[in-house]
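Archive transcription. Copying these from loose printouts into the bound notebook so they stop getting lost. Printout 1 of 2:
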Amino acid sequence: MNIGIIGAGAVGLLFGAYLSESSHRITFLVRETNITKQFYIENDTEKTKQIPCEIVSDIAELKKMDLIIIAVKYHHLTQIEGQLNSLPLHIPLLFIQNGLSHIAFLKHLKQETIIIGSVLHGAAKKNNSTVQHLGIGPTYIGFYKGEWNSIHNFAENINDLFPLILTPDIEQMLVKKAMLNCLINPLTTIACVTNGELIEKHSYKSILRSMYDEMMEAFEEWKERLPWDEVVALCENTRLNRSSMLKDFENGRMMELDTIVGAILERAKQRKQTLPILQTFYLLLSEINKEGDYYG
């Protein structure tokens, strides 16, 4: 299968690495100024491996793909809307952004088939050409609209280190991930600590629990879907990781505040509920937000 990937950030490279191992032919679209000779992946089980792929800077090179994965961050989607609409309408698009705001963006696209993914892996760019796979987790995918006869073949023939799970309720998975990100990302960024330190240090764990309690009060139906033990387990399983928001902050890139934190605050507001701690973190981080690159 010929698969195009728009964006060569950490998640885009992660997809390219494992999809290429499953015999898919990968083409990355990057900005011309970011053209590199090759991309690489590192994980705990193997040494640095080259990612077999082509690297292009013109979206016209993707017009014969069987699938195109959009791996840029939400706040850069509007910048490539015209390019996406220039693609043949029959090519399925898979969006793998964090948060919830990109769902509204999809209404503007003309493509016949649009798929959404929720990525639960840990990944970080070591440098401009190398991604580190820091934590294994499933990627849930589901249809926003349309159909794609090859989706089962795409999801099932994949590396065990990169499981893809087809779900009929992808929006619920996006909401769950956004809630988890709201609990972990802002606090790790304000405190400049790893995920594990949120449960290892009493003060941070106390704040985390208070944030969780206020979120469950606003979204009562999520008490069983997202128990406190699952939040603690995620921090333990990714204890050495620095959250994506913290990494963006440390590298002077725009943090994904509105699509993650802002979206959950808005959903609470619609219920006439407030999330005081999360709102405070949102306002603090909004003042120091910066804009970064979008193709990786």
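Printout 2 of 2:
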Amino acid sequence: MASEPAPVAGGFGPGGGVAALLLLADGRFPAGGHAHSGGAEAAVRAGRVRDAESMAAFLLGRLHTVGLTSAALAAAAALEPERVDAWDEAAEARTPSPAQRAASRKLGRQLLRAARAAWPHPVLDGLRERHPGGVHQPVVLGATAHAAGLGPREAAAVAVYESVNGPATACVRLLGLDPYQVTAHLARLAPDLDAVAAAAVTAAGRGELPAASAPLLDVYAERHSSWKVRLFAS
């Protein structure tokens, strides 16, 4: 299966556009992300995230580790969708926590279901047929971007945005933070988001996927999965 050409600098992939990008990045897109905190719930209970300032530090660290790795995987899948199985193996190798692996594959299944309804495509159908147990979410995100006519640049942008927006929204619920203040912190992260997305696209283009890790998030994920009472799935 031949992949479509990559988008030119500053533009969108073939057939893609702003509307498709906004729909994919919209928190109301039924991909299940609202049920996950990205480690924020465990970080709040551990006392590491207590207020808007500590939340901002948590988001910055998450962006440069989980965000970078996820964005590169998404960019690679959008750039070379014929290799999605290889990218899924790469994602598995970069996810040491069993709890995080399970959460990522669950989110991948939910995203794939929504994506197939919105942008029917043979690449998405193939993922569903070959991997009934689910594919890692960043890989599905990249494949979805391809199906929507977007390129690796847009896939990486959505991935880095999701890496901070979901946990930030969770912190509003967990700590009762002022949503305007939280949004202001996200806005101030914009240059970092752009830089990480660009680095991810460059890495994917070179075939040198990063493996930036956040061991404490792995520990939090395992602890969180054992809780009997929790607000978020992960």
